[in-house]
Design brief:
Helix content: 25-40%
CATH superfamily: Class I glutamine amidotransferase (GATase) domain
Shape: globular
Distance between the termini: 15 Å
Strand order of the largest sheet: 2-1-3-4-13-12-11
Number of domains: 1
Mean pLDDT: 95
CATH class: Alpha Beta
Low-confidence stretches: none
Structural class: alpha/beta
CATH architecture: 3-Layer(aba) Sandwich
Order of helices and strands: EHEHEHHEHEEEEEEEEEH
Radius of gyration: 16 Å
Number of helices: 6
Number of strands: 13
Largest sheet: 7 strands, mixed
Length: about 210
């Protein structure tokens, strides 16, 4: 079993690779490969799409690698488990509104909009640890509870149209999206690879998840 972490010039993937490899080894859950190759993505059993920076930049870089966007879309539609992280999660939306309007995959109907905390003392980007405000009811969050802390670095978040697609929130001058998902797809606005024990638990659950 192979899990492909998609490399499309979206940032340093070393910490993600190390965390996924650690859990894959502990759970005997197959190999981890970091790749920009659409054919490798097609052959993989699971797909992880990270992303750091602006939605527009990540979307452009993903589209710049011939066949990669289509390969991801094709395999997700075929039912393979997919995990989007940070901007990778945002690209699951219909549209991102950072630096103009940019089309996403459209798997989670909704828009990616700028954070607007109701407390002017709260800084943007939202950076650092924050606690989940409810227990997410999803197999990938098995053993993750309300009050558990996860690590964020972002200025935008995904607002899903369907409340059923919203899996987890945190409070930062009002509720902000921490995770979304349905069927064989899930996304986290936070970085599980930087979220210590809670993040490793989530990664392990994803590697064993059979939607």
């Amino acid at each position: 079993m192979i899990t492909a972490i998609v490399d499309y010039n979206s940032g340093n993937l070393r910490s993600a690779e190390k965390s996924f490899q650690r859990m894959a080894t502990e759970l005997d859950a197959g190999g981890i490969v970091v790749t920009p190759d659409p054919d490798v993505v097609r052959r993989a059993d699971r797909i992880v799409l990270p992303g750091v920076g602006a939605f527009a930049d990540c979307r452009r870089e993903l589209g710049a690698i011939d066949g990669l966007f289509g390969a991801i879309e094709e395999q997700v539609k075929a039912g393979k488990p997919f995990l989007g992280i940070c901007v990778g999660m945002q690209m699951m939306a219909t549209v991102g509104r950072e630096h103009g309007d940019h089309v996403g995959f459209g798997w989670i109907p909704g828009e990616v909009v700028k954070l607007n905390p109701n407390d002017p003392a709260l800084k943007i980007p939202h950076m650092g640890w924050n606690e989940l405000t409810s227990r997410p009811k999803h197999p990938v969050f098995d053993g993750v509870n309300a009050g558990d802390h996860v690590y964020f670095v972002h200025s935008y978040h995904l607002k899903p149209e369907n409340p059923d697609d919203l899996l987890a929130e945190v409070d930062y001058g009002g509720p902000i999206t921490a995770a979304v998902g349905r069927d064989n797809i899930i996304g986290t606005q936070f970085h599980p690879e930087k979220s210590q024990a809670t993040g490793l638990r989530l990664i392990g659950n994803f590697l064993r998840w059979r939607p």
